[in-house]
Structures are given as C-alpha cells and as structure tokens.
Design brief:
277 residues; alpha/beta; Rossmann fold; eight-stranded mixed β-sheet; 11 helices; 8 strands
C-alpha cells in the first residue's frame, strides 16, 4: 500500500513491507520503486523492514519540483528515514547511488551503510577510447536521443541494451508501465532534468562517507566502457577500508531487476553486518 510523505514542495510516495532493521531502496531515473519488485520479497523474508521509495518526479511521487539533483534526493531519503524511525541502510541505483552517498555524508547518525548499484557518483567524461566499446557507444547514443527528444521510444531502446541478454519474465509489462509513467504530465521533463544533473555533488562527498559501502557493478553495463574500473574509482575515492566492490557477470544497468537473486546474495551479508533494529 502506498504511503506519502510531504517534503518541501511535494510528496514522496513509498511502500513499507516487513519487520526488522530498516532498509530503504531508491531507484534510478525514469523508473519507479517497481524496479525492486523481485528484491523486496526476499529482503522481507530475510527479516528486514523494507521501504521502497519513488524518487521525486517518478512513480506516484509528485511530478513537479524546483530541482532534481542528487542532493535533493538525498534530502528526501534522509527525511524518509527520520519519518520511519531510522537508522537505516540505504540502497541506491544509478542516479540514486550518488544520492545515498550524499545522504550518508550528511546524516551519519541515521545511515548505517550504503549500497550503490551501478551508481553515477563521480563526474563523468566521454573519452575517445571508450567509444570503441560498441555497447557503451550504443547505450550513450540512445540516452542522448532520449534526453534530446524527450522520447519514450528511445528510452525503451536504451532499456533494451541496458538489459543485455536476460530480460525479466514481465519485460513487456515493465516497458508498458515505464511508458505509461513517462507519459504522465511532467514525468519526462523530470527525467530530462535528472539526466542533466551532473554527479559532481555526489563525488564531492565520497571522501566524507563514514559508514561501510558496497558498490555493485554489472559487467555488461552500457553506461561505462569499463564498469569495474568505475567501481574501483568510487571505492578509491572513499576513506580507506570503507568501500567494497562486487561485479555481477552478465548484468547490465539494472542488476536488481535483471539478476535479483545475485543482487540479494550480495545484499544480505552486507545487511547482516551493518543493519540494526
């Protein structure tokens, strides 16, 4: 059942399931909390209280906000953890990977650990050598077309390469759901503004993280020519000993949806070590 929290200029939608230590799941741009539909039941069964949240501009949350930066989303997540009676472990995917980094740095009393799934947490630059990697070149082109045209068709084309090989069993329904959401007033504009928000704010906070961090990359993620190198750079920018990198072989940009069992297998030991009631 959806619940709603008023934060500043809008409302954030979320759903809480289960009992135990609090885990908050945040998705990436152009998506909703349904991104974690295969993960939530497994975490609940393992004894966690799971709050899956729709980011500002997405899902059932308000569409129109003054801005859509990772710092803004970090503030929303901190407000939700306070509302639910933290502390919590935060899990952030893609855009939200940067947001949970900022939240951990800004609210160390509330955040026990962070998991960054294929995160955009550092300043990005396009290098000529990277474009020789076909999946990266194709994925980047489809993202740029989506951003330029505000096109659901191009976003679906991007999703096709972002899920290389294995697709979820409900793939057609996922595409329908995402398309319907982005067709609602203000939703595509929100995604475009998220896409224009560079992760510089998150990168500036990597050195200020004080809790354990798990970075998960997909070996075939088209968003990077070398996903492992990106994950290693994130870990290196954190204080020594806090970050750990794992790579899921064959996964693209949505490991929690494409490889949920493998993702949960990485999450559970981290949660056992860091989440408390």
């Amino acid at each position: 059942m959806s619940e709603f929290l008023t934060v500043g200029d809008g409302t954030i939608a979320y759903e809480v399931t289960g009992a135990g230590p609090l885990v908050v799941l945040a998705h990436g741009m152009g998506d909703s909390r349904a991104s974690y539909r295969f993960v939530v039941p497994q975490l609940v069964a393992a004894g966690y209280r799971v709050a899956a949240v729709d980011l500002r501009g997405c899902g059932e949350s308000s569409a129109t906000w003054p801005s859509y930066t990772r710092t803004d989303v970090a503030g929303d997540l901190i407000a939700l953890v306070r509302h639910l009676g933290g502390p919590a472990v935060l899990v952030g995917h893609s855009f939200s990977g940067g947001a949970v980094t900022i939240a951990a740095a800004q609210a160390p009393d509330l955040i026990e650990g962070i998991v960054e799934l294929v995160p955009f947490t550092r300043k990005q630059s396009i290098r000529l050598g990277d474009l020789r990697v076909k999946r990266h070149r194709t994925g980047l082109a489809r993202l740029l077309m989506t951003a330029a045209l505000g096109s659901v068709k191009w976003w679906r084309r991007y999703l096709d390469i972002a899920f290389p090989g294995r697709k979820p069993a409900d793939w057609a329904e996922q595409l329908r759901r995402v398309g319907a959401m982005l067709g609602e007033p203000g939703r595509m504009k929100a995604m475009q503004r998220m896409g224009r928000s560079a992760p510089i704010d998150a990168g500036a906070q990597l050195g200020n993280v004080r809790c354990p961090a798990l970075i998960v990359e997909g070996s075939l993620d088209p968003d990077w020519a070398d996903p492992r190198a990106e994950g290693e750079a994130i870990v290196a920018a954190m204080p020594a000993g806090l970050g750990k990198l794992e790579v899921i072989e064959g996964a693209g940009h949505y490991p929690q949806t494409q490889f949920p069992d493998e993702t949960v297998a990485l999450l559970l030991p981290f949660l056992k070590a860091n989440a408390r009631a």
